UniProtKB/TrEMBL annotation:
Residues 1-28 form the signal peptide. Residues 62-148, 227-316, 375-488 form the Plastocyanin-like domain. It holds the Pfam family Cu-oxidase. It comes from the Bacteria. The keyword Oxidoreductase applies. One of its GO terms (molecular function) is copper ion binding. This is Multicopper oxidase domain-containing protein. Keywords: Metal-binding, Oxidoreductase, Signal. SUPFAM superfamilies: Cupredoxins.
Amino acid sequence: MIALSRRGFLAASAATAASLILPARARAQSARMSLTATTRTLDVRGKAATVWGLLDGNGRSGLVLDPGQAFAVDLANTLAEATIIHWHGQIPPNVQDGVPDMPMATLQPGESRAYDFAARPGTHWMHAHIPEHEMLLLAAPLVVRRPEDVAADRQDVTMFLHDFSFKSPAEVLAEITGGASMAGMDHSQMGQDGMAGMDMGAMGQGDMMAMPGMDGMAMDLNDYNFDAYLANDRTLDDPEVLQVDKGSKVLVRVINAAAATVFWIDTGALTGRLVAVDGEPVQPLPGSRFGIAMGQRLDIEIDVPAEGGAFPVLALREGARERTGLVLATPGATVTKVADMSDADHPAFSADLTQEAALRAFTPLPERAASSQPMLMLGGSMMPYVWTINGQTWGKHSPVSAKTGERVEIMFHNMSMMAHPMHLHGHAFQVVGVGQDRIAGAVRDTVHVPPMGMVTVAVDAGEVARWMLHCHHMPHLSTGMMTEFAVSA
Ligand SMILES: [Cu+2]
């Protein structure tokens, strides 16, 4: 974390210098912010849906912080249930990390809690660390701007993706897991009905060897068909249209908050540049299609042509035809409707590590020898629907241990037929190995490990504490696909 801390320090210094010449109104932004966990109503294809959400003091979803601004937030729970919010991508003191009873108890209905820590710049998000609550959209963007973002002549756009069902999360989990979910235990009477939602549930490992493996035919891509796929809470029936200037530059901050959906971000006619992943800059990677797994973020820079026009930025559900998205439009441009289905299934992003292997950190971790190189075997199956780390589920897990300050290289070895987006709390790690290849890959906090794939990440152990390390596929997490990174003194 040395490089990150130094960068954070430099950013803070620049902001402090800037604050000396800012008007009082701007300086007042360092005041505490309020955030409320509450219910809200969405219109999903003409049907009202009551979901949960995290609203700021002005009723907007999520938070945007200025450079150097502290994460000084008062979180109020106005829901009828106890919950707790995790600041995904932030590196707060462990006590503020937001995992139930790890170490803080959930917030009871009506309870408020104060948070205060140095914010880590970049595109991040926040969500309940209870799968059923996350699936109810108790999640929102958390964008911390860098001094460069403020200086850049560039418009900031956020694209927050989610998958949505009119059914309750408990019902959805019960259908997916056949009752194996800890949350779905009370709904185990769903039994075999749960199999209806599975696309290719019963395929075994033998099929993998017989298939080409690139089109997701051997692996299990989507184990549930949601009712809608949302970008900024909307479908393509009525997408968000953002006005942009002709010839301008736009930064699209994509956040995949979906419970169980991997997307391709398609910039259509325009070529984009991937400039950051999980809030950390990478060497710019040009392209018009970038994959994003659950929990991950992509910052994509797009040049709007001088002649203007309307430019959809779409999120394509992998291995299926559904899509969602938003539209960038210059003044006066005609915005035509985009169908919410493509003509054919989108390919699998989860099939391989092509994109991950192409990413290079803008600021790599310093070269160091690792004190230990633990391997984590990712396993599990559709029948029964249980997903494991080293054959174990949460509560029966063996922690990954390190001393604070030590460099550890964790190798994720996926021996299952589904991909797993693996997220570590309280740290940013660097991808240093894909398959057998050593790379100076992206610095990030969530890495997608394809079926039968291997990814190695390097991390410098941070605060002495128990930090969660888990799969960000909510149904997988709900069956216990979590362990801990136990950092000792
Ligand atoms: Cu998983």
